[in-house]
Inverse folding.
């Protein structure tokens, strides 16, 4: 990711600028709010909470990023890691959650959802490997369940990535690095009639630092036609992604300490997978009935075939490898309408919207395998999952310094499961109402105060809503899960620009969840567990001491506990308690540019009684570059500058090596990549 000359003075403003009523509405509304050239000592926008914001392409370009998923780390307090091959979805941590692969973080690209319900590998599975970083125009985020137009999977927060409609010139980029890493990108947006045709193709390859070469190959392509004028905007976008890889999954600590395998070694050389995602989307926006309306339609064809082995040889004869297969097509759309009103001598903003989505899952299967050959079927299902949603929110401006937002969201879900074991087939449905409320005071002396309360939810795996017996033996009774799991949160926040060239934010928050999802090592799946509660504080600062220099810092602390009394304990395994991020961005008039980022996430309990904990992880990444000409720039990035032996993820569960006679409870970890250097050359014709 590399810098541009234009606009560093607006980076700070854009980073902390927030949206008006409705959180993440239309693209045009966001652009009206955030593309500003003011100073950091002026508050911009009219956000609903202190934890809503947008990050623009200029700021993204000055962040050293090792893998695509790290784009999401622009969200303050969010940590993105990996516990297997890079072709899989990343692991996410936010607000005291181990979000697994995205269970309570709703993620979308231009309004098209990324999270996959009833997924073979994890509920809410969020893989953004299909994103081309250089084409991202902005990333919008908000934390907490306070926004009426955020639905499933948004209890901890929501993120929306926006693609550009055009690039300034024909862009060609080449990147090389250690461990046989290479990447090439070509993008252009010629005029076509009254609009522009954006096309891009992006291919990368790499083996990683693992003794088992990852052999990760992925290709992304994008084609978008867009047309925009004073009356509105219209765009049609086609995207495609294909990837394949071999995996070094998490490994047992005892094997490393005994010298059986290297820290970057492996147990099963046949783990890995392949995936594709093809999509077509339509986005139309314009004036309608005195307001601004937007319609989005999308269709997605998706497939993941994943082979994993987390417990190795509990089955001494066949081994413990398993295959997770997910093949589906997704159809959906949304319509929203936003308009100002004048009632009872007060100004209001009214937002209304509807959404629908249908996941036609042809196969979601779990199979026993040996060296990727199937030797048995644990479960194979065909699932249709449909959702229908409607929401409305009214923002009222009571005075120049007081405004409130009151919203209500209604969601209905229907599940139809057709299992290979007939007794586990069936239908289920559920609905939920989610009220939202925000109250904002200010600005006074460039300071605003916020209070937020709201209910959110996530859906559970459809297979769990109809299950009757354990699919392994076909006899043992199995408990069903609730289709929808409610969450309730509150936030008290502040943002201020009272100090020269600086903005500060503070948030105190709480979030209660009716059911937690936990990782089960021997099955490689998550399961519903007890209710939980979380409390935390987040602090952010951004400082622009010079026109060409931006410094930012985010600190987050949380306390996560299960509710109720249980002899096992009340700690939530994997719940990271502290996160810190400090960075700088430089775009000097001399032509030099670059960025640096310090990232730390603290220890987490690995078992409910807290007796075993993970180690903290601290990384520093650097990038520096030079504009050789107006159209040519070169840069070098160094990741994990101090070559720390920290871990991306740590678990505690039982496994058995081929040399052992019984399962052993042990720490299993996936290390961070060692010091890595990459070089990039890009030119715009």
């Amino acid at each position: 990711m590399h810098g541009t000359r234009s606009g560093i003075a607006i980076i700070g403003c854009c980073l902390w600028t927030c949206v008006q009523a409705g959180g993440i509405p239309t693209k045009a509304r966001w652009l009206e709010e955030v593309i500003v050239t003011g100073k950091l000592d002026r508050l911009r926008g009219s956000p609903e909470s202190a934890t809503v914001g947008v990050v623009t392409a200029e700021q993204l370009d000055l962040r050293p990023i090792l893998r695509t998923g790290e784009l999401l780390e622009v969200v303050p307090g969010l940590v993105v890691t990996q516990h297997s091959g890079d072709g899989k979805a990343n692991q996410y941590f936010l607000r005291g959650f181990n979000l697994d692969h995205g269970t309570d973080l709703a993620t979308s690209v231009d309004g098209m959802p990324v999270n996959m319900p009833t997924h073979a590998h994890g509920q809410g599975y969020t893989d953004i490997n299909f994103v081309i970083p250089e084409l991202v125009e902005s990333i919008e985020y908000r934390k907490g369940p306070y926004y009426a137009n955020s639905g499933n999977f948004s209890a901890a927060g929501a993120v929306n990535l926006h693609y550009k409609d055009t690039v300034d010139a024909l862009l060609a980029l080449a990147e090389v690095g250690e461990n046989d890493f290479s990447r090439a990108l070509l993008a252009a947006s010629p005029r076509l009639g009254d609009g522009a045709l954006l096309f891009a193709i992006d291919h990368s390859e790499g083996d990683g630092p693992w003794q088992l070469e990852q052999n990760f190959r992925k290709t992304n392509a994008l084609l978008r036609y867009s047309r925009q004028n004073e009356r509105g905007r219209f765009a049609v976008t086609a995207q495609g992604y294909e990837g394949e890889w071999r995996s070094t999954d998490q490994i047992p600590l005892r094997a490393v300490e005994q010298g059986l395998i290297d820290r970057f070694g492996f147990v099963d050389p046949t783990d890995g997978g392949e995936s594709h995602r093809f999509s077509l989307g339509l986005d139309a926006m314009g004036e309608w009935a005195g307001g601004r309306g937007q319609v989005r339609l999308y269709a997605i064809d998706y497939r993941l075939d994943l082979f994993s082995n987390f417990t190795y040889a509990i089955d001494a004869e066949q081994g413990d490898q398993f295959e997770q297969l997910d093949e589906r097509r997704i159809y959906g759309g949304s319509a929203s309408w936003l308009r100002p009103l004048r009632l009872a001598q007060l100004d209001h903003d009214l937002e209304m919207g509807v959404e629908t989505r249908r996941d036609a899952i042809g196969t979601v299967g779990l199979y026993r395998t040996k060296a990727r050959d199937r030797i048995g079927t644990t479960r194979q299902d065909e699932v249709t999952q449909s959702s229908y949603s409607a929401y409305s929110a009214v923002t009222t401006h009571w005075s120049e310094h007081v405004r409130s937002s009151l919203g209500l969201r209604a969601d209905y879900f229907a599940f139809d499961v057709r299992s290979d074991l007939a007794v586990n087939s069936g239908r289920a449905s559920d609905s939920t109402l989610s009220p939202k409320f925000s109250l904002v005071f200010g600005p006074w002396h460039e300071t605003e105060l916020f209070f937020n309360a709201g209910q959110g939810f996530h859906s559970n795996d459809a297979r769990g809503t109809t299950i009757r017996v354990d699919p392994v033996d076909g006899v043992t009774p199995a408990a069903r899960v609730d289709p929808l799991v409610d969450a309730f949160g509150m936030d008290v926040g502040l943002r201020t620009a009272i100090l020269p060239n600086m903005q500060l934010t503070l948030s105190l928050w709480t979030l209660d969840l009716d059911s937690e999802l936990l990782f089960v090592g021997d099955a490689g799946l998550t399961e519903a567990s007890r209710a939980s509660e979380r409390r935390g504080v987040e602090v952010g600062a951004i400082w622009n001491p010079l026109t060409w220099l931006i410094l930012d810092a985010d600190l987050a602390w949380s306390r996560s506990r299960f509710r109720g009394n249980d002899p096992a304990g009340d700690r939530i395994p994997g719940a990271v308690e502290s996160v810190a991020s400090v960075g700088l961005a430089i775009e000097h008039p001399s032509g030099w540019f670059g960025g640096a980022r310090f990232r730390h996430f603290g220890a987490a309990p690995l078992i409910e009684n807290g007796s075993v904990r993970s180690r903290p992880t601290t990384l520093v990444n650097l990038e520096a570059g030079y504009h050789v000409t107006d159209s040519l720039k070169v840069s070098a990035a160094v990741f994990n500058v101090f070559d720390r032996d920290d871990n991306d993820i740590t678990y505690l569960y039982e496994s058995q090596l081929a040399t052992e006679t019984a399962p052993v409870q042990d720490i299993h970890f996936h290390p961070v990549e060692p010091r890595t250097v990459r070089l990039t050359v890009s030119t715009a014709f």
